Amino acid sequence: MELISSRTNNQVKQFIRVREGTYDNPLCFTVEGAKLLAEVARSEHAVLQVFVVQGYEDKLPPVPAHQVFAVTPEVMHKLSGLKSPAWVAALCCRKESRGAGQVLRRTPWLVLDGVQDPGNVGSILRSAEALGHVPVVLLPPAPSPFQEKVIRTSMGSALRTPYWRPPDAETFLVRARERGVRLWALDVKGEVDLADLPAESGQAFIIGGEGHGLSGGIAAAVERTVRIPIRPQVESLNAAAAAAILLYRLSARRRESR
User: Are residues 201 and 75 in the same domain?
Assistant: First the structure.
């Protein structure tokens, strides 16, 4: 196993460019830690290079990687985006994204409009997988599900949750109209209490960014609004918390209809 001891090694530089989103191949992504490496190895995505801290080689499980390098602790600190780096990191390549036709074959959809924080997006993808494997639409400027922090916060769910990233809101609205999907927005003053949400097919639920709400085109296309009852002294829930509550209600509704 080759040892990398230089922080300016070309493999190290490439890994950092991918992690920071400046590499010229958008299919590449990085993960850190044994758990996320195992998640990638079990997924449809490929592990290209593994970097393991010298002395931890025996802890590395069998991984179908093209290359495996031992690195010094100093090099791992350079590779990592964490204050306390893990002992293993990997450069990976995702499978080409599925088109909208494949991802949006079933409803409901969860739509994120202006949700930009990678931690929130990762948490929402985790909830979407846990509570029904609900397809997620990520409207610009939402981060890629394969951004390092999104994958980490999702605990690997970002690797499996069906998603679509349309180039703009209008492309999404055209698709929704073609499918006859009714657009609901989550709103603190919504007309329908979440507990009374009607069990209809063909629904999409939109969560806006904190502080900005829904974008103009999306807001104009919304047909109905739904609220999560909260105490009056609390202004609102954050996007990830609201999404989890909504997804749980949708999951319960599916169970009730069986």
Answer: no
pLDDT in tens, 21-67: 999 898 999 999 999 999 999 999 999 999 999 999 999 988 888 89
Q: Which residues of 171-188 are buried (b: 16+ CB within 10 A; e: fewer)?
A: ebbebbeebebbbbbbbe
Q: Which of 93, 114, 130 marks a domain boundary?
A: 93
Name the residue type at position 79: L
Residue 154, domain extent:
100-256
Query: pLDDT digits over 147-174, tens only?
Result: 999 999 999 999 999 999 999 999 999 9
User: Edge to edge, what strands does the sheet with 109-113 contain?
Assistant: 163-164, 136-138, 109-113, 203-208, 182-186, 224-227, 192-193
CA 164, CA 139: separation in Å to the nearest integer? 8
Rounded to an integer, what distance in angstroms lies between the CA atom of residue 70 and that of residue 73? 10
Find the CATH number of the domain harbouring 16.
Answer: 3.30.1330.30
User: Per residue in 79-128, pLDDT tens?
Assistant: 998 899 999 999 999 988 777 888 888 899 999 999 999 999 999 999 99
C-alpha 173/C-alpha 111 separation (Å) is 11
- Alpha carbon of 175 to those of 69, 166, 180, 182: distances in Å? 45, 10, 9, 11
Total domains in the fold of the chain: 2
Largest Cα separation within the chain, whole Å, is 62
**What does the pLDDT read at residue 13?**
97
**Residue 258 contacts by C-beta under 8 Å, 6 or more apart in sequence?**
none
Alpha-carbon gap, residue 185 to 226, rounded angstroms = 6
